[in-house]
Amino acid sequence: MRSARGVATLSALPMTCRATFPWRTWWPSLRASARPERADQRSVVGMMTKRERVLATLAGKKTDRTCYSFRAENETCEKLYRYLGFRDYDRLVDYLNPDILLINAAFPPEKNMGAFWQNCWGERYIYKQTEYGPVREDMEGALAGAASLEEIKNFRWPKNDEVDYSNVAASIDRHPDMAVQYGAADVWQRPGLVRGMANFMVDMLINPDYCHFMSDYFTRFYIEDYTRAQEAAHGRIDIFTLYSDLGSQKAPLISNTLFREFVFPYVKRMADAVHSIGGKLFFHSCGAVYPFIDGLIEAGIDILDPIQPCTPEMQPEYLAAHFGGKVCFHGGVDVQQVLSVGTPQDVRASIERYKKAFAGCAYICAPTHFLQVDAPVENILALYGECMSDK
To answer: pTM here?
Structure first.
């Protein structure tokens, strides 16, 4: 599954979804008789704060229960609001009670270019109408036609001074007991989208200087972004996010040789920078990324997301046997099958499977991507109700 990265309209949500659902599609109200037990009515007694629990998990220490996080498409949040009878993101976070708060600064808005939209990076896309509402569909980016390195260098790249961090501290202050996760950095896939992924793949072979210039620029930008965010947060950010989808659902997108040249150095620079400001690095890559996990751990990542169960090597039992104790796993509950078309019982069984597989390992329970709008509310509440009831 491709990662999505659209513009989140809630101040506390990061810009991390490439399929985005704006506030335009209204779902029919659900029957009251169909409602599952309210998640916040479950009895949960714990001795740790949420932040203590997350930090202990990342340190490989025993905790009072399994950590879990919440992430959802904008329209999925709207669906939950209609079901629950309120429209307030902070209240939704309190209701579902996750351990980790996702935040981001405010980046320059996307622009309507007529036939397509373009964001500050030069990614281009359309919003395709579906039964669930408009969904972002990527096209070749602003540098698809660039014929020289000089042309790429002369592109109007965004500047760190254009990012507004004024909401960062306030977002954290509204949830003082939670661990905080910030950002949406990308040092490989986003450069590829600006260039056009087909062009970028060819560039790695015949124009490697194009790729290195772009990945270096993104790396420098995001290191500065994370440094400024940590300053704005007064040191309260615990986890920093790095995205780069390296796998399809069947196999890696590139060889290990290309990974070592075009991905590893930039992930390592990000990891070193994040560690220097007191954070942990959360690395997201959808798909079959098993061949790269050793390299990602060597580069310094602390958390691997979303451990999408798409191949035998990506099953939790296999990952635990080969990488347990080396990295914290995050995700696992499949948004494509279990959460979208399964039952609440299927959701609970999946959670139990992952907790059992990762017993003795560092693990944070979460969906394998931002919760999609086709996931029934009953399944979403089953996910968080089961997590909260964990002892």
So the answer is: 0.89
